[in-house]
Structures are given as structure tokens and as C-alpha cells.
Amino acid sequence: MNAAVTSFSARRTALLARMEPGSVAFLATAPESVRNGDSEYPYRHDSSFYYLTGFPEPESALVLVAANGEQPARAILFCREKNAEREIWDGLRHGPEAAQAGFGVDAAYPVGLLDEKMAELLAGAPVLYCRLARDEELDQQLRRWFNAVRAKGRTGITAPPALRDLMPLVEEMRVVKDAGEQATMLRAGQISAAAHRRAMRAARAGMFEYELEAELLYEFRKSGAQFPAYTPIVASGANSCILHYNTNARQTHDGDLVLIDAGCELDGYASDITRTFPVNGRFTAPQRELYEIVLAAQAAAFEAIRPGNTFHAAHDAAVRVLAQGMLDTGLLNRDTAGSLDDVIANKAYTAFYMHGTSHWLGMDVHDTGAYRITEHPDKPSRPLAEGMVLTVEPGIYVRPGAGAPEQYWNIGIRIEDDVVVAGGAPRVLTDDVPSTVDDIERLMAEER
């Protein structure tokens, strides 16, 4: 069994240990999705299903049966059968026999037998764990399975008396990344960093935003990434103040800043980088002034990311630097906004910084896992632990008006990197792309 298969098997074993004895868990992968006509979107598996199996094909499901007394735990995969004709059109299908041998499960069956086998597996089980209240098709399947078991009630066979949501168990496991996951995410960060460097080198006033997007996508695919992790944001001029702008259609002009938020997906894991740079290669004085504030806020956030510190400590540290910068530059008027502590307490800074500083990162760009300890009455921020991966992305966005000095209008700046919580300072996965003013200008000058 190779190392990757061993990792998937270990995750299943860990999940089984969290389940009640004799219980059953069911998790299907994502369906294929039609784009239009008879054309489908490129297939992308369900993240949690892939996390537990490594199996890449649609029309697949995993069933786990927890150990009960002398009955050992089992992992069962359902997948498409081999089909020579469909493989001519669509490519390889593993089929149950190869799936069992290649993916380390105890048994594999054709997906067409799912209803029959589930009725057998659920008979007498105390609990069924599944994805609750998220999938209408699953609700219909559950009805069929339970009715099939209940039909045997006179023989003493009972359906599971309890349904529980499987996803909190799986999603909490995904919060801490093992060494293999971190290595994949490092490579994803390196590819994305190269794409950002490429866009910086290519940038010229007069280019359209989509031309810079094309540079990113080229580097992603050229370097082996399968997909963009999300729709790239290439926002120039006033568009840089739109947080989720992704039309990417405006023509750039001399003096514009360009904010690029883009990352690739590699082997199921996302990267997420943002850089902001002048399209002509030189920051203006107001652009530089705000940029240095955001960069200092990111540095303060990095300092707060330590095992045992809370998740929100990085945000609090970044906000303190950003709010002070807003007072110093006149973005916030001291006469009306008050002191730094007043600005933070009243959240006056949200006029120019309205989002959080971090989110979990992993198989999903906004990855799974709670940010607060929900069972606590005050819901405090959860402590960080080694192996957690999160983004650090402070910003400042100045739209015209609202009392902001005119020299800052239409300046939107965000700087984002991906970090692993480590024993001391966090390990930055995306530092191959420059982030200081001098380094950005130097890189862009090389191509001019």
C-alpha cells in the first residue's frame, strides 16, 4: 500500500474511532454538473469524500461500518462498473475490483447495488451518520433504505433509531493538516506565487484585466495545477475597492493599482494569494503610504499566529495597525472618530476595512472548521494548534466620498499569504512572490 493510500486509510480509521460501535456512516461524492446543452463542467469531487478515499470518480459513495464486539470495522466503496464503450468516450473507470485493490478499502461494489447493500448494512445499526439537511437526493435515498429495513420488522430487524450529522466529525478532522497535505499546499503556493510574479512582469498600462488573468491561468496549468481554486479577481482602479469583483473586463490606465486575488488548486488543495501593485511599475506617494500600512498590519498579524493564541488574535493585531494608519492619514478624523481605542471599540475602521483577516485554507478555499468554541456560552475564539493552515489578508479600500482625503480615492489594497501554524513563527507557504514596495517595483522594473 503506497503512502497516499495509507493516509486515506488512516483518516477512515480515525473517523471510525469517533463513531458509535456498530454504527454506519454514508458519504457520497459530488455529482457531475451540466454547463449547457450536452456539455458538463470539468468534474470536481466532493472535498470530504476525497479526503477519506482519494477516489476521483463521480457516482461514488463511501460507507463505513464501525467495529462492534468481534465484528471488525469496514470501509466499503461504491463506484461505477467498468464499461468499455463509455471508456472510449469518457476515459478510464476503475471499476469495483480495481478500486478495492488500489484505494485500500475492505470491499467495493457497483453503485447500482447501493440501495440493496445499504438496506443490509443498516439492519440493526444503532446510528446512521450522514450529511444531514444538505441534499434532497439523500433524503429520498434514506427513505428507501429505511423502508426496506422496516419491511423486515417482523423478523426482529430494526432500522437505526438515530440519525446524526457526519460532517462535523469529518470537517473538524480536516482543520489540522498532516505533513503530506502541507507539502501539497506548499507546492500549490509556489505555483500561485509564480503566477503572481508572471502577472506583475507582464503588466502594462492599457492592458485589460483579462489579459493579466490569462497570465495567471497559463502559469497555473503549465505548472501542473488542475484548476484555479476560485474565480480570479483582477481588479484595477476603482474595481480594487470591490471585494469580490471578478468581471475582469476593464482596461487599465497609467497610475492604476491592480489588485489580484488568485490561487491554484493542486491535487485537491487550494492556495490563496493577493497582491496589489501599480500597473506602470511605480507606486504613487498616496498608494505607497496606504500600502505600507497594510503591509505592517500583515506583519503584526503574523506575530500573533502562535500555537495557543486564539484564531482572532491575528485579526485584532491587524486591525490595531490599520486603525492607527487610518487616523494618521486622515481617513478617519480624530475629532469625530476619537482615539485608537475608540475607533476599535466603535468599529469605525470598517468604513475602510470591512472583512476578517483570516480564514481556514485546505481542500476548500474557505475550508472547514469552527472559528469559535461553540459549546462555550460566550463563544470565545478557538486556540490555534500546529498544523492548522490559514490566510492572512488585511486591506484598506477607499471609495470616493465619506470624508476621505481625495488623494486616496479609488485605492484598494489587500496583501494575502497562506501560513501554517508552527512551533514558533508561522510557516509562510506563499512568500515566493514579493510583497514590499521596493521588491515589487524591482521585479516590475526587470521587464521594463
What does the overall shape look like? Answer: globular
| Strands, total number | 19
Please give the CATH class of the largest domain.
Answer: Alpha Beta
Percent strand equals 15-25%
**Strand ordering within the main sheet:** 6-5-4-1-7-8
Number of domains: 2
Task: Write the CATH architecture name of the largest domain.
Answer: Alpha-Beta Complex
Mean pLDDT: 96
Quaternary structure classification:
single chain
Cofactor: Mn(2+)
Domain Aminopeptidase P N-terminal: 3-139
Family: Belongs to the peptidase M24B family.
Keywords: Aminopeptidase, Hydrolase, Manganese, Metal-binding, Metalloprotease, Protease
Could you characterize the architecture of this molecule?
Its cofactor is Mn(2+). It is an enzyme of class 3 (hydrolase). Belongs to the peptidase M24B family. 41% of the residues are buried. The chain has two domains: 171 residues, Creatine Amidinohydrolase, Chain A, domain 1; 268 residues, Creatinase/methionine aminopeptidase superfamily (Creatine Amidinohydrolase, Alpha-Beta Complex). It is of the alpha+beta class. Helix content is 37%, strand content 17%. The strands form six sheets. Strands 6-5-4-1-7-8 form a six-stranded mixed sheet, with helices on both faces. Strands 9-12-13 form a three-stranded antiparallel sheet. It is built from 14 helices and 19 strands. It starts with a helix and ends with a helix. The chain is globular and about 80 Å long.
